[in-house]
Specification:
The protein is of the alpha/beta class. It has helices at about 1-10, 45-55, 80-85, 105-110, 120-130, 130-140, 170-180, 190-195, 225-230, 245-255, 270-280, 295-300; strands at about 20-25, 30-35, 60-65, 90, 115-120, 140-150, 155, 185, 210-215, 235-240, 260, 285-290, 305-315, 320-325, 340-345, 350-355. The chain has two domains: about 1-130, Cytidine Deaminase, domain 2 (3-Layer(aba) Sandwich), CATH 3.40.140.10; about 130-355, Dihydrofolate Reductase, subunit A (3-Layer(aba) Sandwich). The chain binds ligand AOF and zinc ion. Zinc ion (ZN) binds near residues 46 and 69.
Length: about 350
C-alpha cells in the first residue's frame, strides 16, 4: 500500500476533477502491475495496473489507495475490471465518498467473489487526496494559504518593493507546491504590482504548472501582464462579479482567459466563498492562495483557509511595511483564526512552517 500511495502521489495536481489514485498488483510475491490515475483523471489507476499485468493479474492481490469505482463511464468500472481479471483479493485504503461509488465498488468486488479488506493506511490515503475529499464534502476545494513574509509579518516594504523577501530555497519550495496542486490564486492588485508568472519552473516539472486564478472584482487585469499574455499556454481563469463589463470580458476571453462570474458581497467585491464554490463546481480540488494581503484577509475572515504554509525571512520591516493579512474584523483574541502547527523546517536562511486550521 505504501508503494501504491507513492504511485498515487505522481498524479497530484494533474488528475482533477478526479482524485490521484495508485494501484499495485501482486501475484505469487511478485509485483505484476503498477498504475496511477493519468493526467485529466483517466484512465484510472486500476486500469493502468491491469493493462501492465495482463494475464498475470489472475489470482493476484490488488492494493489500491481508494475504493475502486463502480460507475460505468466511457469504459467499464474499475471494480468490474478487477473481477473480470480474476483478482483474488483487493485491499483498499479508503472508501470513495463520490455518491456514484460510496460502497458500491466494494459490493461489486464482494459479489464477484473477491475477498475485500478496507482501511489499510487510511490516514495516509485521506491526507494524499484531502483536496478531493474536501470538495466532495463541502463543494469547494481545499484552500492552502501560502505566505512569505518578514518576521513581523510584512510582505512588502512601504515603497511597495517585495522582491525578494525570502531566498532561493524558499522560492523553489513554492514552485514544488505549485506542481502538486490544481490551481494557484492571487488578487488583482498582486497581479499588477508583482506581475508574477505563477508557473512551476523547476527543471523537469515545467509541464506541472497549475491553473492560474486571478480574483479581479473590477476586471482590471492587464492584457500585457505575464499571466494574461500566456493564457493560451497555461490555463488562466479570472473570477469577477456578475454583470462584468462586456468589453473587458471579451478582451480577456480573446486572450484565452476563462472568465468566471460570481455574486458580489456588500462591498461590491467578489464574494470569496462563492468564488471558491465556483472553483469546486469546475472540478478543482486544491487551491494555493499566494496573496496579497487583502485576499488573504478575506479568506481568513471567512474561516476559509484550511492550511497555511508560511515562510519567514529573518528580516524586520516595521509597521510601515505591507501587512500579510488585511482584516479589521478581529477585535479580541477570541476572534482570532486558530491553527495547529504541523512542522517547521529550514529553507536556506528562511524557515517554513505548515499549519492546519482548527478554529
Ligand atoms: C478509481 N480509480 O484512479 C480514480 C477514481 O469521471 P470518471 O468516470 O473518470 O470518474 C471519476 C470518479 O472516479 C471520481 O469522482 C472518483 O470517485 C473516482 N476516481 N476511481 O477507481 C482512479 N481516479
Ligand atoms: Zn475507476
Amino acid at each position: 500500500m505504501a508503494s501504491a500511495l507513492s504511485l498515487a502521489r505522481r498524479g497530484l495536481g494533474g488528475t482533477w476533477p478526479n482524485p490521484a489514485v495508485g494501484c499495485v498488483l501482486v501475484n505469487s510475491g511478485n509485483v505484476v502491475g503498477r498504475g496511477w490515475t493519468q493526467v485529466g483523471g483517466r484512465p484510472h489507476a486500476e486500469i493502468e495496473a491491469l493493462r501492465m499485468a495482463g494475464p498475470d493479474a489472475k489470482g493476484g492481490v490488488a492494493y489500491i489507495t481508494l475504493e475502486p469505482c463502480s460507475h460505468v463511464g466511457m469504459t467499464r468500472s474499475c471494480a468490474e475490471a478487477l473481477v473480470e481479471a480474476g483478482i483474488q483479493r483487493a485491499v483498499f485504503a479508503v472508501r470513495d465518498p463520490d455518491h456514484r461509488v460510496d460502497g458500491r465498488g466494494c459490493e461489486i468486488l464482494t459479489n464477484g467473489g473477491v475477498e475485500v479488506t478496507e482501511g489499510l493506511c487510511s490516514a495516509e490515503a485521506m491526507e494524499l487526496n484531502i483536496g478531493f475529499f474536501t470538495r466532495v464534502k463541502t463543494g469547494r476545494p481545499l484552500i492552502t494559504l501560502k505566505l512569505a513574509s518578514t518576521l513581523d509579518g510584512r510582505i512588502a516594504a512601504h515603497d511597495g518593493s517585495s522582491r525578494w523577501i525570502t531566498g532561493e530555497e524558499a522560492r523553489a519550495q513554492v514552485h514544488m507546491l505549485r506542481a502538486r496542486v490544481d490551481a494557484v490564486m492571487i488578487g488583482s492588485r498582486t497581479l499588477s504590482v508583482d506581475n508574477p508568472d505563477l508557473t512551476c519552473r523547476l527543471p523537469g516539472l515545467e509541464m506541472c504548472s497549475p491553473v492560474r486564478v486571478i480574483v479581479d472584482s473590477k476586471l482590471c487585469s492587464q492584457l500585457d501582464s505575464k499571466v494574461v499574455s500566456s493564457a493560451l499556454t497555461v490555463p488562466t481563469w479570472v473570477i469577477t462579479i456578475e454583470g462584468a463589463d462586456k468589453g473587458r470580458k471579451d478582451a480577456l476571453t480573446g486572450n484565452g482567459v476563462t472568465v468566471v462570474e460570481v455574486p458580489s458581497n456588500l462591498s461590491g467585491k467578489v464574494e470569496i466563498g462563492a468564488a471558491m464554490k465556483a472553483l469546486g463546481d469546475r472540478g478543482l480540488t486544491h487551491v494555493v492562495v499566494e496573496g496579497g494581503g487583502e485576499l488573504a484577509g478575506a479568506l481568513i475572515n471567512d474561516r476559509l483557509v484550511d492550511r497555511l504554509v508560511w515562510f519567514h525571512a529573518p528580516k524586520i520591516l516595521g509597521s510601515t511595511g505591507v501587512p500579510s493579512v488585511v482584516t479589521s474584523d478581529f477585535v479580541s483574541i477570541s476572534d482570532s483564526c486558530v491553527f495547529q502547527r504541523i512542522s517547521t523546517s529550514a529553507r536556506g536562511g528562511d524557515s517554513m512552517s505548515q499549519f492546519v486550521r482548527i478554529e
